[in-house]
Amino acid sequence: MRILVTGGAGFIGSHVVDALRDAGHDVASLDSLHPAAHGPAPDIGEGVRIGDVRDPEAVAAALDGMDAVVHHAAMVGMGVDLHDLPDYVGNNDLGTAVLLAGMAASGIRRLVLASSMVVYGEGGYACEHHGSVHPAPRNPSDLAAGRYDPTCPTCGWTLSPRLVAEDAPLRPRSVYAATKVAQEHLVDVWARELGANAIALRYHNVYGPRMPRDTPYAGVAAIFRSSLEAGRAPEVFEDGAQRRDFIHVHDVARANVAAVAAVTDDAPHGLTAYNIASGRPHTVGELAAGLAEAVGGPRPVITGRFRAGDVRHIVAAADKARSHLGFRATTPFEHGVREFAHAPLRS
Questions:
Q1: Short-list 286, 275, 255, 280, CA closest to 332
Q2: Nearest 5°: CA angle at 5, between 4 and 6?
Q3: Fewer beta carbons under 10 A from the terminal one: N or C of the chain?
Q4: Which DSSP helix (H) or strand (E) runs through 112?
């Protein structure tokens, strides 16, 4: 199959390109080399066309002769402040709209979208007295006082985190999260109107080789790595007990190969979402400590600092991807963290 990977020169996209080629596909890439994801001298792999998904002419040229698209081109991460809002919406939502229009014109009906666990917001929680509840956004005054865990909106009891399945409500808590929800909605409308098939892979916290270094848009694993390489202790926000599902990029790449195989002409029309996660949660503090131990660096420092858009706990139910796509993450957290501690990053 001939496949276009947008964002194929980036962190996750480049691994997806490698995995698709290893699976026997003919793969090309379209990448704008946005500075939020690439340094001044980006590593451009084989078959990468330089172009922006917001440019209809660049999209049309890249789509020529393709059978399917794997869409990774996006600005990611929490960003700096609300001045980033136009860049996020332009790159993520307008870019997706231009791509979908180009695919409709080209007759391409198979799409895999890189989505994110951020669409769920605070995720799943339960109250001892009121059962499953949806917490309100955390109050900055509570965070400043060190009260990090969400509370029941009815009785104020501290909530316990629960696994989040794909049918959970979408409650974005950041600009980035809002754009990922919009991407999913745009793709779903496109697929239903055309009778096409699309899959959204909701990645949880991806880490591994080729993460960008020293950028406010990088993931927490790369930020910790950069600190340790500079001889500084990793600075962990809140109390370090935030639970996440860290999944290795090699597993994420395999999930894309499985998704491409599942987007067939006889699949249900519309968008189907899958959590792409290990199913084995760990805390942010554990990640920082594991990286520090692996390189013999200084122990992490718990800062108590916080960001308003961050969520406390987000842990996925990974059953649907196992049963429908045959995907299961295979990289153990401890092994992946030790490997990542010495893996090359993007400058």
A1: 280
A2: 110
A3: C
A4: strand 110-116
Q: Is 257 helix (H, G, I), strand (E, B) or coil?
A: helix
d(CA 203, CA 327): 13
Q: Which tokens belong to 345?
A: 């990053």
Distance CA 215, CA 222 (A): 9
Backbone angles phi and psi of 144, in degrees to 5: -65, -30
Q: CA 115, 198, 315, 323 torsion: positive or negative?
A: negative
- Pairing outcome for strands 205-207 and 246-248: parallel
Cα(31)–Cα(128) distance, integer angstroms:
48
Question: Which residues of the chain fall below pLDDT 70?
Answer: 39-43, 78-80, 214-218, 347
pLDDT, tens digit, 9 for 90 and up, residues 254-291? 999 999 999 987 777 899 999 999 999 999 999 999 99
What is the helix (H) or strand (E) element at residue 202, kind and residue range?
Answer: strand 197-203
Output the CA angle 266-268-274, nearest 5 degrees: 120
Which secondary-structure segment (H or E) carries 285?
A: helix 284-295
Tokens 């990640």 -> residue: 287
In eight-state DSSP terms, residue 237 is: P
Cα–chain center distance at 346: 17
Considering all CA atoms of the chain, what is the largest pairwise distance in Å, rounded to the nearest integer? 58
Alpha-carbon gap, residue 39 to 161, rounded angstroms = 37
